[in-house]
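Long-time lurker, first post.

We've been arguing in lab meeting about whether S-adenosylmethionine would sit comfortably in this protein at all. Half the group thinks yes, half thinks no, and nobody has a model to point at. So I'm putting the question to the forum: if I give you the sequence and the SMILES, can you give me back a predicted structure of the complex? Inputs are below. Any interpretation is welcome too.
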Amino acid sequence: MGYRINEDILNNIKQEAIKNHVPILQDVSLDLILTILSIKRPKKILEIGTAVGYSAIQFSRYLEDSIDSKIKTIEINENMYNIAIKNIKDMNLQEKIEVCLEDATTYLDTLDENKESYDVIFIDAAKGQYLKYLKNALRLINKRGIIIADNVLFKGRVLSDYNEHRHRTATNRLREYLKIINEDERLDSHLFKIGDGVAVSIVR
Ligand SMILES: C[S@@+](CC[C@H](N)C(=O)[O-])C[C@H]1O[C@@H](n2cnc3c(N)ncnc32)[C@H](O)[C@@H]1O
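Top reply:
Settle the argument with this. Predicted structure of the protein with S-adenosylmethionine, as tokens:
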């Protein structure tokens, strides 16, 4: 195991998020991702979409057991950011999880792959921006690294023939995301039709 976490505090964070309708990872998707992390034991994780820090805290269980193993997580919403900072401090994980108050759409462009790169990148923010996140993830991911994206089926809309106008752009972009990860020869991708849809892409 990586880092011991206080299950009671974490359960409170989860219940509080559910009560406040914060869209945290569903249990079934979390189980899949934790299984992958437990095999991979990543040293560096990048998360796009922190919310209240629930998934980042969960992921810290399987960080590589070394002083410089770390999770960087990006959140655009100041209120969420402040809650995440508090939750991570309550869990005493502030040395392991760095929360950045940034718009990932532009912030990722500023990261230099020669200075920072990641073993696992988890995409869980604005669905309409997944293609931009993927472009940068492909640049920032290490060889044999894993890019994971949640909500790629967008409540069934991605596989449905008809969608309301307001959901069409995000739906089409998610379809494009799935097409790209399937066709990109650098990737070995799998779509898990669990939860809201989890796409897992392993860099060859
Ligand atoms: C589905 S929630 C993340 C849930 C979290 N990963 C978990 O499972 O505990 C998506 C989060 O992404 C944030 N977000 C949306 N667009 C963003 C962007 N462009 N940059 C950074 N964060 C963004 C939202 O404010 C929201 O808190």
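For your lab meeting: The first helix runs from residue 7 to 19. The longest strand covers residues 141-150. Whichever side wins, do check it experimentally.
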